[in-house]
Amino acid sequence: MERNSQIVAMVGPKGGVGKTTISANLSIALAQLGQKVVVVDLDLGASNLHTVFGIRNVPFSLTDFILNKVPHLSQLLLKTDIPHLDIICGGDIPGVANLHYSKKLKLIRNVSAISCDYLVLDLSAGASMNVIDFVMIAQQSLLITTPEVPSLLNAYSFIKSLLFRRLALSFTRQKQDSLLELMERAKDFDAHPELKTMQGIIKETKRIAPEAVVTIEKILSGVQPIIVVNRARAEKDMNAGAVIQHLMNQYLNIQSSLVVKVREDDAVGVACAKLKPALLNAPKSGFAKDIQSIAGMLC
Q1: 86-112: b (≥16 Cβ within 10 Å) or e
Q2: Is pTM, for the whole model, over 0.85?
Q3: Minimal CA–CA distance to 198: which of 162, 172, 169?
Q4: Which pLDDT score is estimated for 3?
């Protein structure tokens, strides 16, 4: 009997924030709780999730599936040394920031059909259409950031891109051309300062198509990622999450989003050098405890 997977999207609005390390270790933590877990490396151009697990030889990857060399995604499942945890390795296809639409739909359909308890998607960095579309099939997303200002701004920009993408798709389905034009104008808030905030967009929507306000509010309620402040060195670094929350509230009308921290920990670097996940190499470290806490929240 197939299981309905809980899909968790791991998002890093820019590279170097620790997204892949957290994806791998969170998958292990979920598996250690007795969950059947599959973690998928959806970085199609420069995958490296398998290296965190110490896997050197990859017999098949998503490249083989996308290029139709392997007919079924299940053939890519690779067992790890951790009970209940399988991995699907990413690809090495140059220039795949935006897959051809039909190939992307096929990949999304097949990934969504994987049978397990938790399906963890390690997405590529940034806010490409590929990334945003995969986030949209997830029941929960974790937005990985660090306390530095550029990382925080990138995180906010990602949430805004995700929200605008969802609105545009909804308005396209409803054939609301006037609202699609409104969203395009809202992207240039220098020229249209009245559309700088979601409140301004809602106000204009009430004038153009008042029945669509309910749709906007429903989409807003569904955009609430867990914000993970990685490499937190002190309690003050938790203010980083509060900064994003404030921006989301003020400009996007998103009222709340959970903020958690993952401590800066030398154990992570030591484990990476050994090509071994920190959760296994240093199970009592602060990093491991924080990851286990997030896994407990998801379960």
Answers
A1: bbbbbbebeebeebeeeebebbbeebe
A2: yes
A3: 162
A4: 62
Sign of CA dihedral 125, 126, 127, 128: negative
The helix (run of H) or strand (run of E) holding residue 243 is helix 239-252
Q: Strand order of the sheet with strand 37-42?
A: 78-79, 85-88, 37-42, 118-123, 6-11, 140-145, 226-232, 259-263
Name the nearest CA neighbour of 124 among 44, 24, 39.
44
Instruction: Report the candidate in 49, 265, 224, 235 with the shortest Cα–Cα distance to residue 142.
Output: 224
Tokens of 52: 């965190």
Using pLDDT thresholds of 50, 70 and 90, give the confidence band for residue 1.
very low
Is the predicted pLDDT of residue 123 greater than 50, yes or no? Answer: yes
Q: Nearest-CA neighbor of 14 among 129, 161, 150? A: 150
d(CA 86, CA 76): 10
Residue 201 has pLDDT above 90, yes or no: yes
CB of 212 within 8 A of CB of 179?
yes
Degrees to nearest 5, angle at CA 133 with 131 and 138? 95
- Say yes or no to pLDDT of 126 above 90: no
Distance of CA 168 to the CA centre of its chain: 19
CA 99 – CA 67 distance, rounded (Å): 12
What is the chain's Cα-based Rg? 20
Tokens representing residue 164 in the block = 């605008």
Pinpoint the alpha helices (H) of 80-142. Answer: 101-112, 129-135
